[in-house]
Inverse folding.
């Protein structure tokens, strides 16, 4: 099986539904940024214990991002073909993020100061994912996604990434050097 088609050599790419668009189309840019966020979430997940809560939570989010990308790559004239939870973001998907944010936040003693990324590798990876998700949200706000929950989902996801990063910091306390 060949993975290249040569169809994109002219600077265009296929939408999931609705034909072809230029590769610099704002929807394609958003999908690329979401793909980048998904890859960083996968990197963070690679440090998690398989089958435990963080692994399962990040896996679910990575799968949700496929749903989000399917919605974004559906031309506005074909939005009636979207299937909630399969090719369109749903309120339940956002609520699930909120449940996780609340669950994790309840276990943390959060500082009123800004967090400085890098207290642990896992936290830093989640903070990178958070910044990428924020960039995706900024792009999504500029798109014409009638009645879409994409931007709201991305907003909650960035909050969850921040919360998870703080959780990973508390699981890996900073080692302080002795003054001498």
């Amino acid at each position: 099986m060949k993975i290249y088609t040569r169809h994109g050599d002219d600077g265009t790419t296929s939408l999931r539904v609705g034909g072809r668009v230029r590769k610099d189309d704002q929807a394609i840019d958003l999908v690329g940024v979401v793909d980048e966020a998904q890859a960083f979430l996968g990197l963070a997940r690679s440090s998690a214990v398989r089958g435990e809560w963080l692994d399962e939570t990040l896996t679910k989010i990575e799968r949700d991002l496929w749903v989000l990308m399917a919605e974004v790559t559906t031309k506005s004239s074909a939005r009636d073909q979207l299937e909630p939870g399969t090719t369109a973001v749903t309120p339940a998907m956002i609520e699930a993020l909120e449940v996780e944010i609340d669950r994790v936040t309840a276990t943390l003693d959060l500082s009123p100061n800004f967090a400085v990324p890098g207290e642990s590798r896992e936290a830093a990876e989640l903070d990178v994912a958070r910044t990428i998700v924020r960039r995706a949200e900024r792009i999504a706000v500029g798109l014409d996604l009638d009645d879409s929950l994409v931007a709201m989902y991305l907003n909650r996801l960035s909050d969850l990434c921040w919360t998870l990063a703080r959780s990973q910091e508390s699981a890996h306390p900073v080692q302080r050097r002795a003054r001498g």
In short: Residues 14-171 form a domain with the Hypothetical Protein Ta1238; Chain: A; fold (CATH 1.20.1200.10). Residues 173-180 have pLDDT under 50 and may be disordered.
